[in-house]
Design a protein that fits this description.
Elements: H1 5-18, H2 23-35, H3 39-55, H4 59-71, H5 77-91, H6 113-121, E1 124-128, E2 133-135, E3 143-149, E4 151-157, E5 163-170, E6 174-175, H7 177-182, E7 189-192, E8 196-202, H8 203-212, H9 214-235, H10 244-253, E9 255-259, E10 264-265, E11 274-280, E12 283-286, E13 292-295, E14 300-302, E15 315-318, E16 322-328, H11 329-338, H12 340-347, H13 349-353
Antiparallel strand pairs: 1-8, 2-7, 3-6, 3-8, 4-5, 4-7, 9-16, 10-15, 11-14, 11-16, 12-13, 12-15
Length: 355
């Protein structure tokens, strides 16, 4: 394991502070406190969780933590017995889920306690001072970070040399997933804006997580795709005049497809019109007349609008690994109607492409 027992315990204490209702975190934490002979803390945590579960109507889980209190010989025997009676009444006839309205660590939600422990123990506990760049846009690295304490700014360097802050991430948020999943250079610079403690995971540990839990993998991939499209809307001139809420709308509704080098990118037919935008990589457009045109990041094509439609029997083949955004027809058409800058850019796509 990358983390020593002491650092693993410290990491779990920080994780519990961020995700106070996540039982995949608190149950192993109680065991670690017990092994470290911090019995009083283990007892108090178990009783605190029993109260929390009972208050949220999860009597069955409350009974589980109350049983732990008894195993640890918690001195508040009268309260524990009273809470146990209430929990039995609350849990009668109800089927409970460990998920709920509480703030949970989504990546481990589908794992067992031991699987979650195995995943977290593979990390390295690190910290960054305020102002320190944790990752830099354009660099090659494949690590993934979970913020335990503090916050970071996500900054994008635009083509004109300006730096734009996209968002601020706080405890419980993660970043660096692009590089882990798609082996891309860093797409943004992440800087600590206060003393920030994080868990750093290798790409191998993320791959193992996705293999072990497809649901956790789907959660991670969807987050990656949303962030990737959101970053594109800030970097591409066509989207520059759009309000932030519409950029987020496009990011949340679009899908990203990955194509390996030499693969053919399907060109949608008229029965399902969409707009495709190349996010990264290069491809070659082979025209019916034999002409070849290079396509790269930022290029539009699709059947949603004549200005980006390709000639019949055209073929697009990747020159290197490519990521392609598929934007739904309703979003594309809304942007065309509302934003002149977007419409003007689209109207110039084929004009510029076929000069």
């Amino acid at each position: 394991m990358s983390l020593s027992e002491q650092k693993l315990l410290h990491s779990y204490l920080l994780l519990h502070h961020v995700f106070p209702e996540d039982m995949h975190i608190v149950r192993p934490l109680i065991q670690m406190l017990q092994r470290s002979e911090r019995i009083k803390e283990a007892r108090n945590l178990a009783l605190s969780m029993a109260r929390r579960m009972l208050a949220s109507g999860k009597g069955g889980f409350a009974l589980g933590f109350l049983a732990i209190c008894k195993q640890l010989d918690h001195p508040k025997t009268e309260e524990i017995e009273a809470l146990s009676n209430m929990a039995r009444i609350t849990s009668a006839g109800f089927q409970e889920s460990s998920s709920g309205s509480g703030h949970l660590f989504a990546l481990i939600d589908q794992l067992s306690d031991q699987e979650a422990l195995d995943f977290i123990s593979q990390a390295t506990l690190i910290q960054a001072e305020a102002g320190h760049d944790i990752v830099t846009q354009g660099e090659a690295s494949e690590t993934f970070y979970l913020i335990l304490e503090g916050s970071v700014d996500v900054r994008l360097m635009l083509a004109d040399g300006r730096s734009k802050t996209l968002t601020t991430l706080n405890a419980g948020d993660f970043f660096g997933e692009f590089a882990c999943l798609y082996k891309l250079n860093r797409t943004a610079t992440i800087s600590a804006n206060s003393l920030t403690r994080m868990l750093e995971f290798s790409s191998q540990s993320i791959t193992q997580l996705m293999e072990r839990s497809p649901l956790a993998g789907d959660q991670l991939i969807r987050t990656v795709q949303t962030r990737m499209v959101h970053a594109m809307t800030h970097a591409m001139p066509a989207f520059s005049q759009l309000p932030e809420e519409d950029k987020i709308w496009a990011a949340e509704e679009s899908v990203v497809h990955s194509y390996e080098s030499g693969e053919t990118i399907p060109i949608s037919d008229l029965s399902a019109p969409v707009c495709h935008i190349i996010l990264s990589g290069e491809a070659e457009l082979n025209m019916p007349d034999g002409q070849q045109i290079k396509l790269c990041s930022g290029d539009f094509f699709g059947t949603v609008n004549p200005h980006i439609e390709l000639p019949f029997e055209s073929e697009i083949k990747t020159k290197q690994r490519a990521l392609v955004c598929e934007m739904p027809e309703n979003i594309f058409n809304t942007f065309m109607k509302l934003y002149a800058s977007f419409e003007q850019h689209v109207e110039q796509v084929n004009t510029n492409r076929f000069i």
